[in-house]
Specification:
The chain is α/β, with parallel strands linked by helices and 260 residues long. It has helices spanning 39-45, 70-84, 96-107, 128-136, 138-143, 145-149, 160-183, 210-219, 235-238, 240-252; strands spanning 4-6, 9-14, 24-28, 50-54, 89-94, 114-118, 197-202, 224-228. The two termini are 27 Å apart.
Length: 260
């Protein structure tokens, strides 16, 4: 698998370079993750759309230091998108990545064509026990990801790449990501979002229950809400066909992009 780089960030993209006349789905992973969370989306959607799956600073193959604020990550992604200049970018994020996508949608200054908010919320409080486990038993945290992050219906084997990414990030980076989530709160700002938004929730998500997504959809004008059954917090990996179908329908409904 070949990764591209716009320093300091590394990313996987298909097609490369991005093709004109089609939306570009820019995928942002969650806490303690990397671009491999989105492999099924790069593989499954790139015949029709541009798909870019990025490693946040200090994660995966990206350089720079990992951060502990959503706004800091959003600035790094804004710089990345400014340099990449893809046609009709649609920011798509899971959990922490969804918070970063929300910040980008709210910040203005980028020609965003839309957003896809996955298993995330306008406020993301983190239970103290997660920080305690990260500090005292990080390997236990990694091994527990299938039980906490996935549906009981999900085969734990499909989460191997998620666990590998978390293990590679390590406890310090992962804890910083969760601190960023814990400090995040844009509940009062959602009505300012004006572009098309798809909110995707998972019926078995215990980390960001479906009510989080319902709140987003109720407070973002015109937002579309899709719930995926038999999926947990890691739904792009757990139910890629259903997830890709929802995203495909949304992207097809965006205004046609003029070729570059």
């Amino acid at each position: 698998m070949v990764l591209q780089r716009i320093d300091p960030l590394a990313f996987r993209a298909a097609p490369w370079p991005p093709a004109g006349g089609r939306p570009t789905l820019v995928c942002i992973h969650g806490a303690g993750g990397d671009h491999t969370l989105w492999d099924a989306q790069v593989d499954g959607l790139s015949a029709e759309f541009n798909v870019v799956a990025v490693d946040l600073p200090g994660h995966g193959a990206s350089g720079g230091a990992a951060l502990d604020s959503v706004s800091g990550y959003a600035r790094a992604l804004a710089d990345f998108l400014g340099d990449l200049a893809p046609p009709a970018p649609v920011v798509c994020g899971l959990s922490l990545g969804g918070a970063v996508a929300l910040e980008l949608l709210l910040a203005g200054g980028l020609p965003l064509a839309g957003g896809v908010l996955v298993g995330t919320g306008a406020r993301l409080r983190v239970h103290a026990s997660i920080f305690e486990t990260l500090a005292s038993d990080f390997e236990g945290f990694v091994k527990g990801l299938p039980g906490v992050g996935a549906s009981p219906s999900t085969d734990p084997q499909c989460l191997a790449a998620v666990a590998a990414a978390a293990r590679a990030c390590g406890p310090r980076v992962t804890a910083g990501d969760f601190r960023a989530c814990d400090r995040f709160d844009v509940m009062g700002r959602l009505p300012a979002i004006q572009c098309p938004v798809l909110v995707i929730t998972a019926a078995d998500d215990r980390l960001t229950p479906p009510k989080y997504g319902a709140y987003l959809a109720a407070h973002i004008a015109g937002a579309r809400l899709v719930s995926i059954p038999e999926a947990g917090h890691l739904l792009p990996v757990e139910r890629p066909e259903a997830f890709n179908g929802a995203v495909r329908d949304f992207l097809r409904g965006l205004p046609v992009v003029a070729p570059r």
